[in-house]
Design brief:
Blueprint (H helix, E strand, L loop, with lengths): L8 H26 L1 H4 L4 H19 L4 H27 L7 H4 L1 H6 L1
Helix pairs in contact: 1-3
Length: about 110
């Protein structure tokens, strides 16, 4: 590879970490541009969480280098994601068992 410098293993990991962080930042910027109304509701912690989650997932993927391990990891993540979403959707579908304070008069009592 004429004119190209090969990176050392530790330098490679640091460089990939920088790329992973950049991808996380790019996703946050994408959300701001594509979904401005929803983005406006995000606090700074939400933005950091998205950025760091993407970075951490990319960095964790580096620890898996065997093809069979990669396939197993992908399958495990797919199953976990489906179960996680299934549980979340079930929670969201549950009827609200307690009315908001404004309907119970609690909010008015607290204002006094």
């Amino acid at each position: 590879m004429k004119g190209r410098e090969l990176a050392k293993p530790n330098a490679d990991r640091q460089l990939i970490s920088e790329v992973a962080m950049d991808i996380g930042k790019e996703m946050v910027a994408y959300l701001e541009v594509m979904y401005p109304d929803q983005y406006a509701t995000f606090n700074s912690g939400t933005k950091l969480s998205i950025r760091n989650h993407i970075h951490n997932d990319i960095m964790a993927a580096l620890d898996t280098i065997d093809a069979d391990e990669i396939k197993a990891r992908l399958e495990q993540r797919r199953k976990r994601r489906r179960e996680w979403l299934k549980r979340w959707r079930a929670i969201r579908a549950m009827p609200d068992r307690s009315p908001p304070p404004s309907e119970t008069g609690i909010a008015k009592e607290q204002e006094r």
